[in-house]
TrEMBL record:
The lineage of its organism: Bacteria, Bacillati, Actinomycetota, Actinomycetes, Propionibacteriales. Gene3D superfamilies: Winged helix-like DNA-binding domain superfamily/Winged helix DNA-binding domain (1.10.10.10). InterPro entries: HTH_MarR-typ, MarR/SlyA-like, WH-like_DNA-bd_sf, WH_DNA-bd_sf. It holds the Pfam family MarR_2. Residues 13-150 form the HTH marR-type domain. It comes from the Bacteria. This is HTH marR-type domain-containing protein. It comes from Microlunatus ginsengisoli.
Length: 166
């Protein structure tokens, strides 16, 4: 009796699940993140700090609890990351405007400058990948991905919940 070595999912390149899994795996890869850290001259060799700056760059100020969820870590670990970000001058804690008991983690001007470099590099990499796509294909991709995000994750997928205490 042999062992079945094949994947459970048929690796059909037109299967949406296969394509999405490949893109997510690529975007979440440690090697890609290391290259991006190097390209943007991230000031410290600290992947969790880099990922926090990346999330704050995309989402803006966040409650520590929401940032911990986005990073897939716990509150205690996020507190350590936030302390390192503050020590490096990349982020600071500020009072939440909607709840005096809560705080937000926000990028400092130095953190924003790095965030801008991250966004610029991400855009440049995407443009290289899509260089041969027609304007119509790009417009369709944008619309379909926005719809997929909205339908699977919801309208608020890029914003923290302002009513949820941290």
């Amino acid at each position: 009796m042999g062992v079945d070595l094949s994947p459970v999912l048929d690796p059909d390149p037109l299967d949406l699940r296969v394509s999405l899994a490949a893109i997510v795996h690529w975007a979440d890869s440690h090697q890609l993140r290391l290259r991006l850290m190097e390209k943007v001259a991230f000031p410290v060799d600290d992947m969790p700090m880099f990922l926090a700056v990346n999330q704050l760059s995309y989402r803006g100020a966040m409650r520590p609890t929401d940032l911990a969820l986005a990073l897939g870590t716990g509150k205690a670990n996020l507190s350590k990351i936030a302390n390192r970000l503050q020590t490096a001058g990349l982020a600071e804690r500020v009072p939440a405007t909607d709840d005096e008991r809560s705080t937000l983690l926000v990028l400092t001007p130095a953190g924003r400058a790095i965030g801008e470099r991250i966004m610029t590099q991400a855009q440049a990499s995407l443009e290289v990948s899509l260089a041969d796509w027609s304007a119509d294909d790009l417009a369709t991709l944008r619309a379909m991905l926005a719809r997929l995000a909205r339908d699977t994750i919801g309208e608020r997928w890029l914003r923290p919940d302002p009513h949820r205490p941290s």
